[in-house]
Design goal:
single chain, alpha+beta, 2 domains, 3-stranded antiparallel beta sheet, two-stranded antiparallel sheet, 7 strands, 45% helix, 22% strand, elongated, binds zinc ion
Length: 195
């Protein structure tokens, strides 16, 4: 009789341990699932970086290397004012009192006189798409290099066209330069090759 009771107790205990184990497993699974499920409003979360185009990946790596310093997030003229608007020529952030709107863009105090003083003309127009963004990225790199290395100011304006036949919106990046530089820049950029 005593032996049967002992066996029963052992079995009940073993059964309880099994049930507890199973419950912990369920809780763990649920927790893990919740953590991995995508947050709404963040559609990028489920795209593994390995699926990005190599050019885009390269760019992401470069951007990670140059994390903005505190000074870059504040207006260069007012170190306590957070920068709010970017100048379309130098791409630096300025506070509202240091930047002027012009057409669809904004220019800093150093660059707005250039916009007013000179005639600007189109250098190149490229059609971009979200599927192949590398051409656009390349154009912005060229713009940055022209200003930093050769002190040639340019700006890039985004134009949208509605394609009625195919019922979608096309995006164009149009690069402008000071008219007297345009011919030289056109040749330079075709030599760099965007494609
Ligand atoms: Zn500027
Ligand atoms: Zn300022």
């Amino acid at each position: 009789m005593e032996k049967t009771a002992l066996i029963l107790i052992v079995f009940t205990n073993a059964f309880l341990v099994l049930i507890l184990g199973f419950l912990s497993f369920l809780v763990y699974k649920l927790f893990k699932h919740n953590r991995n499920s995508p947050q709404s409003g963040d559609p990028m979360i489920n795209i593994p970086q390995s699926e990005f185009h190599p050019e885009v990946l390269k760019r992401i790596k470069e951007l990670e290397k140059v994390k903005p310093k505190r000074s870059e997030l504040f207006c260069p003229n007012h170190t306590e004012e957070p920068g709010e608007v970017t100048c379309s020529i130098c791409d630096k952030l300025f506070c509202k009192s240091c930047i002027r709107p012009f057409k669809t863009m904004h220019f800093c105090k150093e660059h707005i006189p250039l916009i007013m003083k000179y005639e600007w003309d189109e250098i190149i127009t490229i059609k971009t798409s979200t599927i192949e963004p590398e051409q656009g990225v390349r154009l912005f790199d060229i713009k940055k290099n022209l200003l930093e290395k050769e002190n040639i100011p340019t700006y890039i304006e985004t134009h949208y066209k509605i394609n009625v036949d195919q019922d979608h919106i096309e995006t164009y990046l149009v690069m402008y330069g000071i008219k007297e530089n345009v011919q030289k820049l056109k040749e330079k950029i075709t030599n760099i090759k965007l494609h």
